[in-house]
Design goal:
By secondary structure, the chain is an alpha+beta fold. The chain is built from 15 helices and 6 strands.
C-alpha cells in the first residue's frame, strides 16, 4: 500500500515534482490524504489542474474530484497553488480559490488546506491561504526522499509539464503509414505462426524482442523503420506481449518501458491500442502512474488491459502488490513457449 504520510508540509511540497514526474507551474496540485483503516493517513490520489481551469470552471474540477475520490476515505486535502505572484501584494486568486474551497466543503471535503508556492527553487517561501502564520521555506526538491525513491526506480523528473508531454507525441503520419505498410505483412505471418503453434518461429521473434530490450538498457532504441515494423508485428501477438509485460530485473523493466513507449509513438492505428496497454502497464508496474495516466489520455479505444490498469491507478492500488502476479504470469508464458512441446 502507499506509504503513511510522515512529511511536513514543506517536505510534501518539495515532493510534488517527483510525484508528478515534472515541475508544475501555474497549477493547483491536490494531494488526498486517505485513511489507512487504523486512523493514520497515507498519500492517496494526486491530481493536477491548470490554475486557469480552477479559477474559471471550479464546478468542473470539483465534479472530477468527487468522481476520483468517491470511494476514498479522505482525511485531508492538501492543495499546492503553484503561481509566481511577485507583482502582487496578496496570495494569488484568493477570492476565486475561496469559492472553490467552499464548493469542496459543500461536497463533503471538510478538511482542506491550500498552500501557495511561487515555484520550486529551494528556500522559497510558501504560505497558507487560511492561516497567515502558517508559512515556511521549501526544502530542496532534489534531495526530497520521494525524489530519491523515484530516481532509484529509474524514473525521471522533467523540468516542465511541456517537456514531460513531449515523450507522448506520436511520430508524423507519413512515418506511421510507411511502418504500417512494412508491419502488416509481418503481422499476418505472425498470426499464421500462432494459429499453427509454430513455436520455433515465435521463439525467434521472442529472441529479437529480448535483444531489443537488452539494447535499450544501453539507451539504444530502433530508428530503422523495418526494425520498428518487425517489433510491432511481434508484439501484436498476445503471447509475446504478455511475456514482455514484466522483466527479470529493474534495469530491464525501465529499458523495456522506454522501448515500448518509443514503439507506441511510431505505431500505426492497427497496433496503437495494444501498444498503449503495454506501455501503460509497464509504466504502472514501474511505479510511474503519471506516465500511465498520460497514455490513457491518448487512447481512444482502450483494451481490457488498459481499463484494468487505469482502474488500479485511479483506485490507488500499490503496484508492488500486483507485480508478483504479473511477473508469474509473464514467466509462465515464457516457459511455455521456450521449453514446452512439439515443434511441429
Amino acid at each position: 500500500m502507499p506509504a503513511p504520510i510522515y512529511l511536513t508540509d514543506a517536505d510534501l511540497l518539495a515532493a510534488i515534482p517527483a510525484t508528478l514526474g515534472y515541475v508544475p507551474a501555474d497549477s493547483l496540485v491536490l494531494v488526498a490524504a486517505t485513511d489507512r483503516g487504523d486512523g493514520t493517513a497515507r498519500m492517496g490520489p494526486i491530481t493536477r489542474f491548470d490554475l486557469d481551469i480552477v479559477v474559471r470552471r471550479p464546478g468542473y474540477v470539483v465534479a472530477y474530484l468527487k468522481e476520483v475520490l468517491a470511494e476514498k476515505a479522505v482525511m485531508r486535502l492538501i492543495g499546492a497553488v503553484v503561481h509566481d505572484n511577485a507583482d502582487t501584494g496578496d496570495l494569488p486568486y484568493r477570492r476565486q480559490l475561496a469559492t472553490f474551497t467552499q464548493w469542496l466543503h459543500d461536497c463533503g471535503f471538510t478538511n482542506i488546506e491550500l498552500l501557495h508556492l511561487p515555484g520550486f527553487a529551494p528556500g522559497v517561501t510558501w504560505s497558507c491561504y487560511e492561516v497567515e502564520t502558517h508559512t515556511g521555506t521549501l526544502t530542496d526538491p532534489v534531495t526530497s526522499p520521494v525524489t530519491t525513491h523515484v530516481i532509484a526506480l529509474d524514473n525521471r523528473v522533467y523540468r516542465s509539464r511541456a517537456e514531460f508531454l513531449q515523450q507522448f507525441l506520436p511520430a508524423d503520419a507519413d512515418t506511421r503509414a510507411r511502418i504500417a505498410a512494412l508491419a502488416d505483412p509481418i503481422t499476418d505471418e505472425v498470426e499464421r505462426e500462432e494459429r499453427a503453434d509454430d513455436r520455433p518461429s515465435l521463439r525467434r521473434r521472442l529472441e529479437r524482442l529480448d535483444d531489443a530490450v537488452s539494447a535499450a538498457t544501453g539507451g539504444h532504441v530502433p530508428t530503422d523503420e523495418r526494425v520498428i515494423a518487425d517489433q510491432l508485428a511481434g508484439l501484436s501477438n498476445l503471447r509475446l506481449r504478455g511475456i514482455h509485460l514484466t522483466q527479470a530485473a529493474a534495469e530491464r523493466a525501465a529499458a523495456a518501458h522506454a522501448l515500448w513507449l518509443h514503439l507506441w509513438r511510431h505505431a500505426p492505428e492497427r497496433y496503437a491500442p495494444d501498444m498503449a496497454a503495454l506501455v501503460a502497464t509497464t509504466a504502472f508496474l514501474c511505479h510511474d502512474g503519471i506516465s500511465a495516466a498520460a497514455i490513457f489520455a491518448k487512447v481512444p479505444r482502450p483494451t481490457q488491459l488498459s481499463q484494468l490498469i487505469r482502474a488500479m491507478h485511479r483506485n490507488g492500488i500499490d503496484p508492488a502488490t500486483v507485480v508478483p502476479d504479473f511477473f508469474t504470469n509473464s514467466q509462465e508464458l515464457r516457459t511455455e513457449l521456450t521449453t514446452s512441446a512439439a515443434d511441429l
